[in-house]
Structures are given as structure tokens and as C-alpha cells.
Amino acid sequence: MVKITKEAALEYHQGERPGKIEVRPTKPYRSQTDLSLAYSPGVAYPCLEIQKNPNDVYKYTDKGNLVAVISNGTAVLGLGDIGAMSGKPVMEGKGLLFKIYGGIDVFDIEVDEKDPEKFCETIERIAPSFGGINLEDIKAPECFYIEERLKKTLDIPIMHDDQHGTAIISAAGLKNALEVAEKDIKEVRIVINGAGAAAISCTKLYMALGARKENIVMIDSKGVITADRTNLNPQKQFFATTRTDVHTLEEAIKGADVFVGLSKGNVLSKDMVKSMADKPIVFALANPVPEISYEDALESRPDVLMSTGRSDYPNQINNVIGFPYIFRGALDVHAKAINEEMKMAAVHAIADLAKQPVPDIVNEVYHVNDLQFGPDYFIPKPVDPRLITEVSAAVAKAAIESGVARTTIKDWDAYKQHLMQLLGQETQLTRNLHLIAARHPQRVVFAEGGHPTMMKAAVQAMQEGICYPILLGNPDRLNRLASRLKLDLTGVDIVDMRADQEQGRRAKFAKKIAEKRERSGYTFEEAYDKMYERNYFGMSMVENGDADAFITGLYTKYSNTIKVAKEVIGIREGFNTFGTMHILNTKKDVYYIADTLINRHPDENVLYDIARLSAHAVKFFNDEPAIAMISYSNFGTDAVGSPKQVHAAVERLQREYPDLPIDGEMQVKFALDGKLRDDKFPFTRLKGKDVNTLIFPNMSSANGSYQLLQGLNPDLEIIGPIQMGLNKPIHFTDFECSVRDVVNITAVAAIDAYVDKVKKNN
Length: 762
Prior knowledge:
Elements: H1 6-14, H2 32-38, H3 44-52, H4 57-60, E1 66-71, H5 88-102, E2 105-110, H6 116-126, E3 132-135, H7 142-153, E4 158-160, H8 161-181, E5 190-193, H9 197-209, E6 216-220, E7 223-224, H10 234-238, H11 249-253, E8 258-261, H12 270-274, E9 281-284, H13 294-300, E10 305-308, H14 323-332, H15 340-353, H16 360-365, H17 387-401, H18 412-422, H19 428-439, E11 442-446, H20 452-463, E12 467-472, H21 475-485, E13 493-495, H22 503-516, H23 524-530, H24 534-543, E14 549-552, H25 558-568, E15 579-585, E16 590-594, H26 604-620, E17 627-630, H27 641-656, E18 662-666, H28 668-672, H29 674-680, E19 693-695, H30 699-712, E20 717-724, E21 730-732, H31 739-761
Parallel strand pairs: 1-2, 1-3, 3-4, 5-6, 5-8, 8-9, 9-10, 11-12, 11-14, 12-13, 14-21, 16-19, 17-18, 17-19
Antiparallel strand pairs: 6-7, 15-16, 15-20
Helix pairs in contact: 5-14, 6-7, 8-9, 8-15, 14-17, 15-17, 17-18, 19-31, 20-31, 22-23, 24-25, 26-27
């Protein structure tokens, strides 16, 4: 675990700008018209519509995506009653988590009031502003009264996360841990150490899952809560045991199946864990120091199933797995409340998610390859991108079915897709590519079958229905790797290009190349030797119809791959070169950039080909090209070097393709700012058009541009490199590509292959 110092924490919160959150406008505001629409006089119209129909507030304002995080600072973390203002950093932090995980806007509100009645009155008066309220860090037992009252008086979702967030996550964890331990929740003996808001709520939810009250022992600071104790509040009284043989934690823990700690650190000893039943379940959730350390628990009982609240150990019970998605689902149906049905739906959705194959991004974050359901993984990780779709949808559906939703969701697939796009997990462009590819899956050869990234991508692409994958490599080695990565290769074809049984194909492929290149010094023997190399063999499979598309690049140098592609596949008729394009899917628009990989120092003839290939490629993606030829000068202001070459290429293109919207040479700022360009250069062929395609004067500038944007904005979606100009669908990857990058390229390759077939058949 990263050691956090006081100095580092204070500097983080202070930084260049104090605090962790800000408010940003969502509508245009630069012109007088924008401001008149935003405020006076335009704002009057939505006000009047809301007056006529109050539910229209969700239509015209941010209410449906706005949550108030409210506290009085009486129970802040483990710091206790430190006051409303002192708790503000925590509330800002909660707002940050709501935003990054759920896409939900938050105002943090710190109320300097300890009287529950007055506190409730304050919240009731400001509630119309919000679509939901997250109560935070309010001490027990007042928190119980406050939540219950607000649920009765307000018609928006109310949740005290300290109670229910912990309860939902730990209930999901307990459900799965019991399954791993092969124990029945109706029979297990449970010890709850702690009797605050979280402990009470957790225990009630365990009972809703099937735990029996008579099998539960709850302990507070004075010991076991027994029926003969006096001065118990109603919440504690409910869990008072009639047992007379237990008074301390040490006595209660003997023979217990489950320990849930919501108290303080280092109260559970090794000997206590040893005294528990077989396959004990220990949830040591005190933060930052758990009731017993992970190491001590495993040392005392190797068969223990362990959870903590810490991220540096397996099975972290973390509220962030719950509250952003619970509120997300509730807000999206304009729910009047968060009820028991919605909470239980979240429990089951979280529990079920842990049993599904783990996305590669999760393995990468935690530097593992084999996360799978079992003792070390029975709770989803907070970074799991599926949480927002699975949990939010489950909560929204439960709200609709239980009658607390103001609106409904008819297309659940579309809703989940919207959620993925909301957090940038997937865009409409990517989605469309995958859908089109899945309608026409093709046989795709993956050159580096023994590379973990490529193998994972091949399996994922197959699971998504994008392709029928063919891995090149030694079957024994590939199967060992698959076993280590926990990948199922059923349905994946493995081809060992060096195996004896491939002698016939090697000879067939070699003969074809030798005949094509006989005037280039190629002999059959030389060609045959090359068939032992993955790129030669794999491309030859495509060239000879044994496969439809080929993907390579994770190991091989581009210079070698380019050479092989020209020899085996060849360049499209009518062109003298080929190139690659990257697609940048920005918040502003989709942009196509070329040539990013192939032509280092193009002359005017190469630029001419790249522009034509780019126009074809943009149309391939169902878009209309508007092309700017980029340089550091504008329209002939510099007549030497690369501007001269770009200028000459533009002249030729405009002459031969009079209907093609293309112009240059121009600087990037004029390409991207249409108004500036049209005002300064009214003669341009691009007048009135938004440029979407940028052809750079050399590979360095094109490659550097997209990588610069990617480095400055890691969330920017980039698809590529996409091959343009070869006779067959041969596509390249970067060695640093992620699994998702390769899957995206696979989708493009599959579509490319399908289109190629359609053209040939017509």
C-alpha cells in the first residue's frame, strides 16, 4: 500500500487550486445569444414549463443528474465529531467519486447543525434542487432517525451511505464467500463486532439474504449485546441475544463461521481466528487498520476467506462499488426513493459480476493475469468497467418493478450502451464498428499468437462475435499460455506454420510468391524459407484465400512488416504506396489523421496517394471527407521544403478531383477553426465545411500529433493504425497496444475483409 504522508495529502488538496471539484457549464456561453438563452430572457421559458408540469424539471435542468452529499460532521471517517466544516474535504472526495465512477454531478453541503429535527428541516428546504441525497458521516443513532424521516417527507432517493453502502457491498461479498466456502447462510453463525450505523444496516441485509437472527451475535464497546442489558437503543435491542454463555468477543467467536468487523483495529487475535469453524469468513473492515491484518489471518488459518477495506489486499469491501451505480440507476428512472428492492438488486448484481470472466483492464491495473472467482476474488474490483452497466441497470429495473420510478426504460441494451458511453468506456463509433463486424464475422489471422495481448484480444473478439480467430504459433506453447491466462481456446484455430503437416501449404505459398516476384530476384527456395516466418505465412494465408484478414505488429518492426506486405499482398492498382490512418474520437468530433506509420518523408506524389487513400478510408467509415493538407505555412506563404510539396500535391488533387473538398497547405489552427479559416482565406475550397481529415506533411508530424493528444488526454479514444492501400486486409498494431485496441483493429479488419468480398462478388 502506498504510504501517504501528511505533507503529501495537504499539498494534494491545496495544489494550484484548492479543493477537488468544480462546476463546469454544459451549454455554449461565448456569444450574446448563448447568454440570452442561458439566462435572461430565455431562461423564463423552461421556468414556466416546469411551473405547468413539475416533472419537467428533469427535462430542463440538471436535477436528474444532481446529488447532494450532506453531512453535519459528527462521525467523519474514524476521526469522530470534528464539525461540519472540517468534514468538507471528505464530502468533496465523495463528489469526485460520484463523478468519475457514475458520471453524477454533486454539490457537497455541510450543515452546521447537530439537532436531528433542525438538520432535517434544513435538508427538506433545499431538497427541490436535487435528484437524490447522499447522507454522509452522521453519527448513530441520529443517522437512523434522520434517514427515516427524510424518506417519509421527500420524494427523491435518500441513502445514508455509511449504513447501506457498506451493507450492500459486504452482503454481496458474504453471499459469494459462503458459496466459495460451501456454506448455507441459513445455518452459519455470525459475529458482528460493532453496533454503529454500518453494523446495524449490514446485519439487517444479511438477514434479508437468509441469515437467522438467532445465529447472530452483535458486540459493542461494552461487550456482547445481550437481552439482559439495559439502556439499549431500539436498533441494538433488536439484535440482543438470549444466549447467556457469551459476553466477550473471544467467547462469541468460538465455532463461528463468519466474523464481520466494523469497529476498530487489532481487536481480533490469531487465536480467535483459530477457534472459528472450518473455512472461516473474516471481514475485517475497520479503516485504515483492520481488526486483524491480512497476513495474521492467513498465518493463523490458511483456509480463511478474508476481506478488508484496503485496496492492497484481495476482496476489498469498498463503498465505491455501490453508491455511484445505485444512485445512477435511481436517477435515470427519476426514482422517488431507494427502497429495499433496489438495494437487494444491487447486492445480487455485484455478487453475480464477480463470477463472470474478468476484463483485461482489471487484470492490468492489479498486475495479474488470472483473477477468477474463488477465495482471492469474490468481490468485483472498483475499477471494473462493468459495474456501471450491471449494477445501475439492476437498480433501475428494481425501481421500475417496485413502483418508485417516475419514468421507465424500454431498451435495456441501449441504456447500458449509454452508460458505457457516459464514462467513455465505449463510444458510438466503436460500438458501430463492433456491431457491423459481428454481423459479418471473418476469418482473422493473429500473427503473434503467443503474445498475451494478442491471444486475449483474439478470444475476446471471438466472444463478441467479431471474427473466427486463427492463432499462429506452436499449439503446446499456446495452450500452456492460455491455461496460465485462464483463457478458453475452444473455437480458436491454431496453426503452426513451422510444423511438418504445413509443408504442403508452405510450398504452395512459396510458389505463389516466387511466381509473382520472379522478376525481382525471388527463387522458390528463398520464398519457401520465408514461409517459416509468421508474417510471410500469415499474409500468404490471406493472399491464397485460407483466411480473410491478418493482424500483426506486436513483435515485428514496421520496416520489416511493410516489406513483407508489399511482397506478398501488393499495393492496390492505381496507387504507388500505401499508408495508415488513426481515428481520433474527441468530444468535439471524429478526426482522421494520416499517414501515421508507413511513409516517413513523403514527396508530393506520395502525399497525393495518401490524400486519395484517406478519402476512401473516411467513406469506408460512413463519413464524408473534408480534407486539410497540413503544414507550418498557409497557402503558399513558404515556397520551399515540405510546404512546397504539400502545395503541389493540393494543386494536383484539386485539378483531378474537382468535387473533393480538399485544400491547403494550412496550419492546424486554420484546419480546425472553420470561421477563422473562412474569414482569413475566403477562397478556400473548404469554405463552410468542418474539416474531419488531416493529412500531415510527414510521418513524424502525424505520428507525433496523435500521440501528443493521447498523452495529454488519456481518455481520448484512438482507433488505429488502420491500413489503407494494400490489396488485401492486412492490418498493423503498435507494440504498446492494449487488448481493446487490438479488438478494435480486429473489427476494422473484419469489416474491411467483408467489404472486399462484396466488391469482388459484384
